[in-house]
Amino acid sequence: MADPTADFFDGLGHRGPDPMLTKVRGTVRFDLGHRDGTDHWVLVMSEGNVSASRGERPADCVISTDLRFFDRVTTGEANPIAALLRNEITVEGNLLLFHYFQRLLPGPPGARDPREMVRERRHK
Q1: If you write DSSP's letter for every residue of 22-83 in order, what string do you get?
Q2: Domain residue spans of the chain
Q3: DSSP string across 12-37
Q4: Which residues lie closer than 8 Å to 21 by C-beta, 6 or more apart?
Q5: pTM here?
Q6: Where is the SCP2 domain (predicted)?
């Protein structure tokens, strides 16, 4: 069975440094509840490098939500800011890290990179 959350976090380790995150340092813990308990993931951002691992430890920012809902966030189907406003996600600690975390998420299904659209228009 597919696990979008695990796939998302595992994929972060295969990315190169992100130039948009070069000045960001911090840890974010995700507490993802489900019927059998709570899964914990820790995301470490350090000068453009991002890594994730399973585990429960202190963090600069703690994001809590339902695992099934977070699956939708990691596939671009749900917006974390809108979810925060609806109390589907709670954030404790450094909110700025929550903001930077969003840059790692995929866009909505079917979304296109605006740079690609500009290139296509130039070639017409």
Answers
A1: TT-EEEEEEEEEETTEEEEEEEEEETTEEEEEE-----SEEEEEEHHHHHHHHTTSS-HHHH
A2: 4-122
A3: HTTS---GGGTT-EEEEEEEEEETTE
A4: 45, 47, 48, 50, 100, 103
A5: 0.85
A6: 18-105
Q: Which two tokens stand for residue 39?
A: 């899964």
Structure tokens at 35: 């019927």
- Between CA 21 and CA 23 the distance in angstroms is 6
Q: What are phi and psi of 26, to 5 degrees?
A: 165, 170
Amino acid at 72: R
DSSP letter (8 states) at residue 92: E
pLDDT by residue (tens digit) across 80-111? Answer: 999 999 999 999 999 999 999 998 998 887 77
DSSP 101: H
Cα Dmax for the chain = 54
Tokens of 42: 């820790």
